Amino acid sequence: MRKRMMLTVAYDGTNYHGWQIQPNGITIESELNGALSTLFGEPIKVSGASRTDTGVHSLGNLAVFDVDTRMPAEKISYALNQRLPADIRIQASREVPLDFHPRHCNSRKTYRYQILNSEFPLPTLRLYSYFVYTPLNIVHMQCAAAYLIGEHDFQSFCSADSTAETTVRTIYHICVEQKENVISIVVTGSGFLYNMVRIIAGTLIEIGKGRREPDEMTTILEACSRKAAGPTAPACGLTLLGIYLEPEPAALV
């Protein structure tokens, strides 16, 4: 009998051309498809909840696939991890209703953008943070970030390559925190436009450097123009922390 399984997927995106299958390199999706097809002896294609870009990391992306198997759903994660490269690991596997897809239900996504703000780079953080040697004013960054909370047209924070039908999104929570020389921007929203979090990070960095005032965030939002916001921060600093479904799919046993 055909079943639908959902995976929670963590990965280091450094060596991948993003989530979605690309003709020019390996991707998270292609690695999952290959491992699943080998495991079950039939062609399998996953469908992800969030198509992260080249170099972006994840602690909890979601993906579903259909398969005819007697293997218990919770055992799939163990079997799959034995067939995946070390920089991709399944954190959980479960059966969900056949008509369920995480992209077709209400959800909240949380991203973290990490900045190493110090005089010199740290080799151990080079793949997971953006190095900025100019001292950043975290108070100004916090004040600026507060303007983004709520429902807004985020066209100014959207890449020109986006094909989104609407650029209106809701940010439920955003915080800018500093621990020693690492600054973290953590944002939770109903969904995000192409490069949205990285453009927010790039704009907050400019404000932290004193190149813009915190209250300019209002002007940037109202402009509805990509040219009004700051640069797109590098992908290496971005991690998808998790996707929270509302409501969770019914448990199947």
Report the principal-axis shape: globular
Main sheet record: 10 strands, mixed
Tally of helical segments: 5
Q: What oligomeric state do the depicted chains represent?
A: single chain
**Radius of gyration of CA atoms, rounded to a whole number:** 19 Å
β-strand number: 10
Helical residue percent band: 10-25%
Given as residue ranges, the uncertain stretches (5+ residues, pLDDT < 50) are none
Indicate the mean pLDDT.
94
Helix vs. strand class = alpha+beta
Distance between the termini: 14 Å
Strand content: 25-35%
Order of helices and strands: EHEEHEEEHEEEHHE
What is the strand and helix layout of this fold?
Blueprint: E1 2-11, H1 28-40, E2 47-48, E3 57-68, H2 73-81, E4 88-96, E5 106-117, E6 130-132, H3 138-146, E7 150-153, E8 168-179, E9 182-189, H4 196-208, H5 216-223, E10 238-246
Parallel strand pairs: 3-10, 5-6
Antiparallel strand pairs: 1-3, 1-4, 2-3, 5-9, 5-10, 7-8, 8-9
Structural notes for this entry:
There is one protein chain. The protein has 253 residues and is α+β, with helices and mostly antiparallel strands. The chain has 5 helices and 10 strands, in the order βαββαβββαβββααβ. Strands 1, 2, 3, 4, 5, 6, 7, 8, 9 and 10 form a 10-stranded mixed β-sheet that branches. β2 and β3 form a beta hairpin. The longest helix is centred in the first third of the chain and has 13 residues. The chain is globular and about 60 Å long. It starts with a strand and ends in a 7-residue tail after the last strand.
